[in-house]
Amino acid sequence: MKNTRRGSLTWTRVWRRLWTLSCIGVVLAFSLLAQPTPAKHKGGFSGATSSQPLALSADGELLAVANPDNNTVTFFDTSRPVPDPIEEVNVGREPNGVALAPDGSEAYVANTVDGTVSVLRLNGRQVKLHKLLQVGTEPYGVAVTPNGDKVYVTNARSNSVTVINARNNHVIKTIEGVGIEPRGLAITNDGDGNDDDETVFVTQFLSLPLPGKFDGADDAKAGYVTMISTATDSVIGQIQLNPIADTTFKAAGDALRRIPPGPTPVFTTGAYPNQLNNIAIKGSFAYVPNTGASPNGPVQFTVNTQSLLHVINRAAAADALQTINMHRAVADQPATVPKRFITQPWAMAFKHDSDEGYVVSAASNIVVKVGVNPSTGAPVVLKDPLDATRVLQIPTGSNPRGIVINEDDTRAYVMNYVSRNVTVIDLLTPRETVIATVQSASLPLSGTLEDKIHIGRELYNTSIGVFDPATPGGTPITGRMSNNGWGACSACHPFGLSDNVVWIFATGPRRTIPQHTDFDQTDPLRGIQRALNWSAIFDEEEDFELNIRGVSGGQGLIVLADGITPDPNVNAFTPLANGNRNQLKVRGVGAWDAIKAFEQFGIRAPISPTPSSDPDVIAGRALFASANCANCHDGPQWTSSRINFTPPPTAGVVNGQLIDQLKKVGTFNPSPLNNDNEVRANAAAPLGADGFSPASLLSLFAFPQTFFHNGAANSLADVLANVTHRSAGTGGVDTLTNAADRQKLEQFLLSIDSRTVPFP
Question: Which of 461, 409, 358 lies closest to 69 in space, CA to CA?
Fold first, then answer.
C-alpha cells in the first residue's frame, strides 16, 4: 500500500524560497510560492538516491559531510540559507561516504581504512555512535534505499557490496562478484513504499581490457556498471560503457600506426571511460561522469584525457550511446572568452523536478550544469543564461568531490575535499549563485609538516593552482598546473595511485605507476626513494616539472629569479638537480617542496582483502623466496630500485636512463608483430632493450588486468607464464613449472600490502 503523498511546502521551505526571491521581487516570489513541491512518500526520499561524501535528509533540513582527513563527520542544520553547524563527530579512519536515513534520525558512515560503517543516531542537536558494523575491505560509497529500509555499501578492495537492514542495523548480506573496485552507488525509486522492487547500480572504478584490443589504443578498454536487485540482493547484470570513436579533438600524428607528428592536427582520437567514481539516475537513464583516457600518441594535453559523461538506458540495461565529451563545450567558446576545462568529472546530482543536473569537476574547482533529453537521455552542457558565449561554471572550494540537491530544488551543497568546506549554491537565481561557504573541518596549522603536505595535496589535485604573488602585495599567480585547466596529477593518479592506463609516451608504452611506491613508507623521514618511471628516466619528483609543461601544457612551477618566468633550464639529471630550485610558493611554502611532501607522506597503500594467514598465501610466500623473486622485488617498497646518490648523477646515465636500475626480465619485444604498442609517442622505436626498473609489488592487487610496462599481460597468471621473467632470480633455472605452485604464488602476490613483512 502506498504511503500518503505530500504536496505542499513546509514553512521552512517557504522561508528559504522567500529569502532567495526577495531580491527578485514580491510578485515573482508569490508566484513561486504557489508552486507545489514534487510529491514524495511520507518519510522517504522523493527521487533516486546515490552515494556521496555528503548527504541530506529527505526534508532537506539536515546535512552530513564526511571529512576523510580528519576522521570526522560534520552535521549542519540546513533549514536556513546558510547552514548552521550542529556538531563534528569522530568516526573511523578515512570516512569517504555518508548517507542519512530519510528522516535524518541516523547516519551511515563508510570508514575506508577501518573497514567499518559507523551508525550514528541523531536526537535533536545531539549525535551519538549507535553501532559499529564490520563490512568489507575499504568501504567507500554508501546509499540508503528510498524508503530507508536498507543501506548498501561498496567495498572497493574486496570487490563486494554489503547490505545493512536499516530497521535493526544488522548486516544481512555481502554480495560478491560485483566487479573490480566498486565505488559509486545509485538506487532507483519507483515511487511506492516498497524498497524490495528497486535496482542498485554500482560503478567499477577502473576500466578493463576489451578482447582483441591492445593497450595504448584509444578503444582498448571499457567501463562497467553492475546491477543488483534489492529483492534478492544479488547481481542481475553488468552494463558495458563503450569507448567513444571521436573525442572531436585531433592529434598531429598516430603513434600506433607509426605516423610521426606533422604540422597540423588531422588524426581523429577516441577515448575510453575510466575512473567511474559516481553515478546518478534521472528518469529512464543513469549518468556516469568519468575521465576518458585517450592514450595513443603523440602526447598533447588536448588528446590525452577527456571529460566524458556516459548514459545508461535503464530499460535496455545498456550503454545508451549518448556519450558526450564535456570539454567540447568549453573549447567551442569564442577565443576571447577565458577557458577552464572540466577536468576530472567526479560526481553528479540532478534536480528533482526538472531535467537538469550538475557535474562536479574535481580538478578545476567548478560545477557545470547539464540538461538531459527525457526521451533519449542525451545530455548537453548548458550555457550561462546571462552570457550565451560561455559555459555556465559555478566556482567551488578546492577539489570538490560530491554534490547533493535538496528536495525542493532550491539549494545545492558541494563537498570540497582539500579546502574542507561546503559550497552552498542558490539554484533559483537566473544564474546559479554561491551564497555561502561553510567550514566542515579544520585545516592544518600553518608552518607544520601537515600544512606542507596539505598544500601538496592541493596542488596534486588541481588543474589550476593559485600561488603567492611574485612580489609582496602583487597579484596572485594562477593557472600554472596545466593549459586552461586541462590536466592534473590526479587525472592520471586518482588518490595518488594509478589510472591503470598504458600511455604511449615519449619513451614508449608506459602503464601509469602508482605513487604510493615512490618512497619507503617505513622510513619516518621518507628519504629512501626508487628510480622514477619504467625506464628510470627521473631521479627526483621535481623532474615531473617536465610533465606539467610537456604533457599538461602548463607553465610549471620552477621559475627564474623574478619569481614568475618559467626557468627554461629544466632537464632530467643534468646539468642541475631540479630539487630545491627557485619555485613558486603557496602560503610561503615551495610548490614542489609541498608536492614532494604529499607524495612522501600523503598517499596511502591500498589494503589487501587477502589474509596473510591463508594457507595458499603462506605457501606462495615460500615459493617467492625459493624463486628468489626478491632479487627484483625486495624491501618495504617491494622493488630493488633505489636512488643511491644525491642528484644530479655524475655517471651511469645511458640513453637517458639510470642504467644500473634496469633489469632485463623478458618483458620487452620490440617486434610490431608481437607487440603493436611498442612504439614512442613520436612513432620511433621505444626504450626497453636495456630492461626496466622493477615494478613494485606493494598493493599490486589494486591494479588488475594490466601488467608489465606495456600492459601485455592481463592477469598474474599471464605474468607468471613468462618463463624468462619468473626465472630471473635463479639465473634462468625455472622453479615454477608447476601450475598449482604458480597459483599459490599468485595468492601471495595478491596479499601484499603495507602490513606484509618484506624480504630484505
Answer: 461
Assess whether 573 and 495 both reside in one domain.
yes
Which grid coordinates belong to 567? 626557468
Burial of 587 (0-12, 13-18, 19+ CB in 10 A): middle
Which of 533, 566, 601 terminates a domain? The answer is 601
- The answer to whether the Cα torsion of 547, 552, 557, 559 is positive or negative is positive
Q: Does residue 21 fall inside a structural domain?
A: yes
Give the pLDDT band of residue 642 (cuts 50, 70, 90).
Answer: very high
Task: Write the single-letter amino acid at 392.
Answer: L
Q: Work out the percent of the chain whose per-residue pLDDT is above 70.
A: 94
Residue 654 lies in domain? 615-751
Of 713, 727, 721, 454, give the one whose Cα is nearest residue 594.
Answer: 454
Q: What is the pLDDT of residue 88?
A: 98
Give residue-wise pLDDT tens across range 299-349.
Answer: 999 999 999 999 999 999 999 999 999 999 999 999 999 999 999 999 999
Is there a contact between 178 and 226 (Cβ–Cβ < 8 Å)? yes
What is the tens place of the pLDDT at every residue in 660-717? 999 999 999 887 655 689 999 999 999 999 999 999 999 999 999 999 999 999 999 9
Task: Let me know if 576 is exposed, middle or buried by CB neighbors in 10 A (0-12, 13-18, 19+).
Answer: middle
Please tell me the distance from the alpha carbon of residue 144 to that of residue 57, in angstroms, as a whole number: 11
* pLDDT-based confidence at residue 16 (cuts at 50, 70, 90): very low
The Cα diameter of the chain in Å comes to 87
Quick check: 278 and 51 in contact, CB under 8 A?
Answer: yes
DSSP bridge partners of 293: 272, 305
Contact 84, 76 (CB under 8 A): yes
CB contact at 8 A, 164 and 130? no
Residues 523 and 644 in one domain: no
The tally of CA atoms less than 13 A away on the side-chain side of residue 60 is: 29
Are residues 543 and 569 part of one domain?
yes
Q: Quick one: 520 and 550 in the same domain? A: yes
Q: In terms of Cα–Cα distance, which of 518, 590, 600 is closest to 558? A: 590
pLDDT at 673: 59
Q: What Å distances lie between residue 426 and 20, 39, 411, 497, CA to CA?
A: 8, 22, 5, 35
Query: Do 376 and 519 touch, CB atoms closer than 8 A?
Result: no
Sign for the CA dihedral angle at 454, 460, 464, 466 comes to positive
Q: List, for residues 461-482, the tens digit of each pLDDT value.
A: 999 999 999 999 999 999 999 9
Distance CA 198, CA 201 (A): 10
Number of domains in the chain: 4
3-class SS letters over 34-51: CCCCCCEECCCCCCCEEC
The enclosing H or E element of 27 equals: helix 26-33
| pLDDT one-digit tens code per residue, 495-536 | 999 999 999 999 999 999 999 999 999 999 999 999 999 999
Residue 60 has φ and ψ, to the nearest 5°, of 75, 10
Rg (CA), the chain: 26
Give the separation between CA 162 and CA 407, rounded to whole angstroms.
27
| Nine cell digits for residue 356 | 537538469
Co-location of 552 and 629 in the same domain: no
The confidence score (pLDDT) of residue 574 equals 87
Q: What is the DSSP letter of 574?
A: S
Cβ atoms within 10 Å, residue 206? 25
Per-residue pLDDT, 35: 35
Domain boundary among 130, 160, 190: 160
Please state the pTM of the whole predicted model.
0.94
User: How high does pLDDT run on average in the chain?
Assistant: 94
What is the DSSP code (8-state) at residue 156?
T
